[in-house]
Amino acid sequence: QVISRARQTGLRLTSKLMFVHQTIAELAAVVQRADADAGAGAAGGEAPEASGRVDLTPVQRWFFAKHTAHPDRYAMSVHVSLAPDSDPAVLERALAAVVDHHDALRMRYTADGTGGWVQEYAERPAELLAVRDLTAVPDTGRALHEAAAEAQGALDLRGGTLVRGVFLRLPDSAPPRLFLAVHHLVMDGVSWRIVLEDLATAYRQLAAGGPADLGAKSSSYQRWARRLTELVRSGGFDHETAYWAKAVSGAVDVPCDGPGDRAPASTYGEVATASSVLDRSVTEALLQRVPGAFRTRINEVLLAALGRVLREWAGAPVTIALEGHGREELFDDVDLSRTVGWFTTIYPVALDVPEGPLEAALKAVKKTLRKLPGRGLGYGALRYLSEPGSAAHTALAAAPHPRISFNYLGQWDGADDGDGLVRGRLDGLGADQAPDEARPHLIDVVAAVSDGELRVDWLYAPSVHTPATVRRLADDFATALRQIAAAAGN
Questions:
Q1: Does residue 471 form part of some domain?
Q2: Which of 197, 223, 249 is the last residue of a domain?
Q3: What pTM did the predictor assign?
Q4: Do 204 and 332 belong together in one domain?
Q5: In this structure, what are the phi and psi dihedrals at residue 140, rounded to the nearest 5 degrees?
Q6: pLDDT tens readout for residues 178-200
Q7: In what helix (H) or strand (E) does residue 342 lie, and over which residues does it extend?
Q8: C or N: which end of the chain has fewer Cβ atoms within 10 Å?
Q9: Residue 286's Cα: distance from chain center in Å?
């Protein structure tokens, strides 16, 4: 939040600067110099409006390789309640200001004729926000899902429609809502925070009669993609090749409950979910007491519990696909603090968690994660950006993907401080993916803290794993986390 506010005032403040310069006096001096450099063009050296082609990043290349049936239908969406007096006309202008400000939201994609895709900038779509009056419909719940499905289905890679919102008027004087779908190719969890914050800022400014002013821009997605590609092609990640080749070579498959005579697969249309919710006291212990008691981080705690559960199930250490935010500070002239786009890193991690005391499990996972080179960024960079025929491409391009993924989304309710545009985050609507699109993993484990409680969702395919199997895994995981929280209390 500090970095975000600094960026809105035109200052270049990054997490790296805050880590290196740990007093107010030192930080102020550095921020002032960075701001002066930015005015001279050193903060990016690029035109305010990015244009032309944009290199595909590793996660975008992964997407096109794994989602071939319906690439248009792959959204990230939010469903939020709005202030009671929200004006849809002002909201549409605010949304247009956000799309104008963040260049990645104006991408367009075309097939290159060889099975690949080309990404380039286009004009902002004419229609960004529809208004749906549901005050008199007989089934509000169904109407909400239909409105969301219409927005999700309107996304069009070739036409450049990557953002579509719906302003929803509800019966019984309920506050209005906003459903906003953005194609995942240009959106991630960090970007959602930026977009909703900027949307609220632009709305407030426009409602007051002034222009929308979202502050100075950080580096474009185009610049990041180009610099990353250049770094890979110049050998900047070559020293990581052996590490990642070893990481993918020892993966074991996970047990499946379906017929053994076919390769297990899964589609989004058949996904079922088993969920566990840890109450506020346990969640507070995991977030606040456990890290201090065991000198560890929350993601290491979650992975220690997960690794133990999966090992007991599979009979051997399980390699999972782990996700990271991907906004690594690799270049002094690239600032991603307010850049919207898909930066997520996806990389394999073997969860070799020993039996015995919890301290030993936590220590093993902590050691594994802290040995990861570059927080996982190099794996996708080497796999998808290396030149064909290079050592990295030969070692990684055809490596199998882990069958289980894990993603900790952190703490975020997506709401303002109580008097702004966004008042609360609501349950999802519609379907972000096409039902017959193949899923990259058989089981996705997604954890997030909302309203003070840790919720863990296990998304799985009933044709591959029975509900009883996944329910047992979910319960064992929750039990392991409660045991860790209790150990910290003791």
A1: yes
A2: 223
A3: 0.87
A4: no
A5: -65, -40
A6: 999 999 999 999 999 999 999 99
A7: none
A8: C
A9: 22
